[in-house]
Amino acid sequence: MKEWELDKIHIRNLEVFGRHGLFPEENRLGQKFVINAVLYVSTRDAGLNDDLTKSIHYGEVSHFMTNYMTEHTFGLIEAAAEQMARAVLLQFPSLQRITLEISKPWAPIGLPLQAVSVEITRGWHRVYLAAGSNLGDREAYIRQGIRMLDDREDCVIEQVSELNETKPYGVEDQPDFLNGMIKMQTLLFPRELLEVLHQAEQEAGRERKMHWGPRTLDLDIIFYDDCIIDEEMLKIPHPDMANREFVLKPLAELAPYLRHPLTGKTVWQMLEALRMCAK
């Protein structure tokens, strides 16, 4: 869903009772907490049709958060906010993003303090992953990686491209690859997602012996929303995607008009430019 399609539903000053805090008496006796939440969801259909089923029931969200705060115990309100935001996003599928503030009135710090609060924003992120294999049962390894991601509650596979057989890239003296593209949504941050992908590769028996060498499973982040990350171990968008037809071809199958956040070129334009250079 595009950013301009998202509307906001506000829940303000919801008072709940919870047993959260680092001091034993806070966990034993409990205390009042105040919750503010902004729910990012499209209300267009609900507004046009006067139909609550096409929006989010703020009453149900309020009761869910109240029960969550009552039934769980955390030492930090940071943890309470993080875990409850995740729980709300998983409980209400049409919710795209949530800004959640948990306020702790009269925090026990020995000073005349009205309240302390933590505010976070969490939501679903659109990701495109390149998948490849050139050892063993190549398709089985790729399908195994897809299942591993789809089995996680914080990852939702939306679409998978056709798998194409391609010649090796970089190191040519190795078996041909099978390559495809995965379109998914995730609650994971980029570095967290990278760790999950490495875990999936390891479960498929991948051994990192040689750069661009043979592998049972290769999973690469091509796009993560419009994020631009340039770190030693993580670069998004993938820096060499414009030179790789085995990336651009399946990506064009899923999202031909998706634009590169740095160059502004669409996937289709990058693919056509690469094919022209190859002639």
Structure, explained:
The chain is of the alpha+beta class. Helices cover 32% and strands 29% of the residues. It has 8 helices and 11 strands. The strands form 3 sheets. Strands 5, 6, 7, 8 and 9 form a 5-stranded antiparallel beta sheet that branches. A 4-stranded antiparallel beta sheet has the order 1-2-3-4. Helix 5 packs across helix 6 (190-203) and helix 7 packs antiparallel against helix 8. The chain is elongated. The mean pLDDT is 92.
Brief description of this entry?
The chain has eight helices and eleven strands. It has 279 residues and is α+β, with helices and mostly antiparallel strands.
Helix content: 25-40%
How many strands appear in the DSSP assignment? Answer: 11
- Broad shape: elongated
* Quaternary structure state of the chains depicted: single chain
Q: Write the H/E string, N to C.
A: EHEHHHEEEHEEEHEEEHH
Gyration radius (Cα, Å) is 23 Å
Intertermini distance: 38 Å
Which structural class best describes the helix and strand composition? alpha+beta
Mean pLDDT: 92
Tell me the strand percentage band. Answer: 25-35%
Question: What tags apply to this protein structure?
Answer:
279 residues, alpha+beta, four-stranded antiparallel beta sheet, 8 helices, 32% helix, elongated
